[in-house]
Amino acid sequence: MRVHIALLGRTPWALVNTYYASVMRGERPEEIYVVTEVRYSGNLPRIVEAIKAISGAYGFSPKIETIVIPNDDFKEADKALKDLFSRLNERGGEIVLNMTSGRKALVTAAVIQSRGANMKGILYMALLDVEFQNRPYMMLPKHMQRLKNFLGEENGGSD
Questions:
Q1: Helix, strand, coil share (%) of the chain residues, nearest 5
Q2: pLDDT (tens digit, 0 to 9) for every residue of the chain, 159 residues total?
Q3: CA distances (Å), 58 to each of 12, 40, 51, in order?
Q4: Residues 6 or more apart in contact with residue 18 via CB below 8 angstroms
Q5: 149 and 23 in contact (C-beta within 8 Å)?
Q6: Is the pTM of this model over 0.85?
């Protein structure tokens, strides 16, 4: 089982573009979990639609679930992500964590709870110029983006 956990914060394009970059590099998750706070949950329908469109364009259709936690609640974020990682660990498989858009409560909880999981990647896409932050992936100049896997896989510019 291949799983992609995406943390949604204030910049929806950051989540979508990091997912797109990972798919272009060969990731084909069977399940996707989008985790966000209440204040950003209004973006979930567009995020789910974007993930479906990108996945469909590459010939696969993952199951997508959303998890919404209270705003700025480190304790609830930790509990929700602990539960998610526990369920995923029981089933086995590889997990990729997309933390580009995530806020501190979500990112902190996810990284802590990912210890002991079969992590394939912890991804962050850096944009070297914030002028490009609200654009679709294919409209981002390649020299202005860096997809980083904090677990050590090849880093650098996006494909």
A1: 45, 25, 30
A2: 899 999 999 989 899 989 999 999 999 999 999 999 999 999 999 999 999 999 999 999 999 999 999 999 999 999 999 999 999 999 998 999 999 999 999 999 999 999 989 999 999 987 765 565 555 555 455 655 678 898 986 544 444
A3: 21, 27, 11
A4: 6, 98, 100, 101, 123, 124, 125, 147
A5: no
A6: yes
Length of the chain: 159
* Contact present, 97 and 5 (Cβ < 8 Å): yes
Using CA atoms, how far apart are residues 123 and 147, in angstroms rounded to an integer? 7
With a CB cutoff of 8 Å and minimum separation 6, the contacts of 109 are 74, 77, 78, 80, 81, 82
State phi, psi for 79 to the nearest 5 degrees: -65, -50
d(CA 67, CA 74) in angstroms, rounded, equals 14
Look up residue 7 and give its DSSP letter.
E
SS3 122: strand
- Residue type for 156, please? G
AA identity, residue 53: A
Closest to 63 (Cα-Cα) out of 39, 86, 42, 93: 93
